[in-house]
Design brief:
The strands form 2 sheets. This protein has a 7-stranded mixed beta sheet, sandwiched between helices. The chain has a 4-stranded parallel beta sheet with strand order 7-8-6-9, sandwiched between helices. Helix 4 runs antiparallel to helix 10. It has 11 helices and 11 strands. It starts with 8 loop residues before the first strand and ends with a helix. Strand 10 and strand 11 form a beta hairpin. By secondary structure, it is an alpha/beta fold. It has 2 domains: 184 residues, Rossmann fold (3-Layer(aba) Sandwich), CATH 3.40.50; 115 residues, 3-Layer(aba) Sandwich (Rossmann fold). Helix content is 43%, strand content 17%. Adenosine-5'-triphosphate binds next to helix 4.
Length: 329
C-alpha cells in the first residue's frame, strides 16, 4: 500500500467510559510502535489531554505489568472542550508542539465521532481501537471489555442464584447498558436467567408476568436481568410494577453497577486488545486513517469510523433471546 506520509511519532489515548483491556491495548500500541522504530506519547484523560497539553513519552518499560490490570493508566474522560472548534484547534497545537503525527484512539462510538471531526478539520491520521463494555459497535464481533464485564456480571448473578433458590425469591438484577442490551442478554443466557429485559426490544411487564406465572408452578427461584436503559425502567422500577400485580411475591433487587467495569481482563479481552494494538499501529504505518480495528470471524479487519458508528451493533440478541426462552422453561 502507498504511504501517504511517513509516520514517526504516535500518540495514544483512552476516551469515554473505561473498559477492562484498555491497558492491554495501550501496552500493545506502545510496544508495536517501538518495535517498528517509532516514538510514542501517551495522552492523558482522552481528548482533554490533547486540549490541555497533558502528554508524556512512553517507552516499552512504561507499559510493563499492566496487561492484567483493569482501568486505564492514561485515565479516561469525556471532553466538553474537544466538542468545540477552539478545543480541537488547541488539540492540533499540542500535536504540533510534540511532533506527534498520528493517533491511536481507544474508546467507543463517541470517541470515533470526535476522531472523524478532527480528521476532517486537521487531517491528522487516526486509527481506532474499540474500548467499551457495551459491545455496540459495527465492524467488530466484540469490543474490548465486553467479555470481562459479562463474565463479572455472570459470576455475580451465579451468587444471587444461590441465595435466591434457598428462599423462593424473585430477583431483579440490573446490569449496565443504557442503550445496548448485549451484557444483559449474554449474562442472562450464561447465568440461566428466566427473563431478560433490554432497550432494543419492546418486551415488557406483560411478557414478564406470563413468564412469572409459568415459573411460579415449577421453579424455586426466578432471576430477571434488566439492562439499565430498558424502557420499563431500571430493576427497581420493574420490581415495583411487578409487585403492584403480584403483592405476594418476595422480591429483591440488586443493581450491579460499576463493579462490571473493573477487574482483570479475561483472556479473550487481553488477546483482542493485543491483536488490536498491533493492527492499529501497523495500519497507521501503512497509511490508513479514519478506520477502526475490529475482529470479524476471527480475522482482524478495518472499518471506516462512519460505518462502524452508523451500523451500530448487529447483535445476536434475537438468537440469544430464543435460546433463553427454550432453555429457561
Ligand atoms: P462509551 O461507549 O464507553 O460511552 P464513547 O467513546 O462512546 O465511550 P463518549 O463520551 O460518547 O464516549 O465520547 C468520548 C468523547 O469523544 C466525548 O467526551 C467528546 O470529547 C468526544 N466526542 C464525541 N462526539 C464528538 C463530536 N461529534 N465532535 C467532537 N468530539 C466528540
Amino acid at each position: 500500500m502507498k504511504k501517504v506520509k511517513s509516520i514517526e511519532h504516535i500518540g495514544v489515548f483512552t476516551s469515554g467510559g473505561d473498559a477492562p483491556g484498555m491497558n492491554a491495548a495501550i501496552r500493545a500500541v506502545v510496544r508495536t510502535a517501538h518495535y517498528h522504530g517509532l516514538q510514542v506519547s501517551g495522552i492523558m484523560e482522552g481528548y482533554n489531554g490533547l486540549v490541555t497539553d497533558d502528554v508524556k513519552a512512553l517507552g516499552t518499560r512504561d507499559v510493563s505489568n499492566i496487561i492484567q490490570r483493569g482501568g486505564t493508566i492514561l485515565r479516561s474522560a469525556r471532553s466538553k472542550e474537544f466538542m468545540t472548534l477552539e478545543g480541537r484547534l488547541a488539540a492540533k497545537k499540542t500535536l504540533d508542539k510534540h511532533g506527534i503525527d498520528a493517533l491511536v484512539a481507544i474508546g467507543g462510538d463517541g470517541t470515533f465521532r470526535g476522531a472523524e471531526v478532527f480528521i476532517a478539520e486537521h487531517g491528522v491520521p487516526i486509527v481506532g481501537i474499540t474500548g467499551t463494555i457495551d459491545n455496540d459497535m459495527g465492524g467488530t464481533d466484540t469490543t474490548i471489555g465486553f467479555d470481562t464485564a459479562t463474565n463479572t456480571a455472570m459470576e455475580l448473578v451465579d451468587r444471587i442464584r444461590d441465595t435466591a433458590s434457598s428462599h423462593d425469591r424473585l430477583f431483579f438484577v440490573e446490569v449496565m447498558g443504557r442503550s445496548s442490551g448485549a451484557i444483559a442478554m449474554h449474562c442472562g443466557v450464561a447465568a440461566g436467567a428466566e427473563f431478560v429485559m433490554i432497550p432494543e426490544r419492546k418486551q415488557g411487564i406483560v411478557e414478564l408476568i406470563a413468564v412469572l406465572e409459568r415459573a411460579e408452578k415449577s421453579k424455586s427461584s426466578v432471576i430477571v436481568i434488566v439492562a439499565e436503559g430498558d424502557e420499563e425502567g431500571g430493576a427497581y422500577e420493574v420490581a415495583r410494577k411487578v409487585k403492584e400485580r403480584y403483592a405476594h411475591y418476595e422480591t429483591r433487587v440488586s443493581v450491579l453497577g460499576h463493579v462490571q467495569r473493573g477487574g482483570n481482563p479475561t483472556v479473550a479481552d487481553r488477546i483482542l486488545a493485543s491483536r488490536s494494538g498491533v493492527t492499529a499501529v501497523e495500519a497507521l504505518i501503512a497509511g490508513h486513517a479514519g478506520e477502526m480495528v475490529g475482529v470479524v470471524n476471527g480475522e482482524m479487519v478495518l472499518t471506516s469510523f462512519s460505518m462502524a458508528v452508523a451500523a451500530g451493533k448487529v447483535t445476536d440478541n434475537k438468537d440469544l433471546d430464543r435460546i433463553l426462552t427454550i432453555l429457561s422453561t
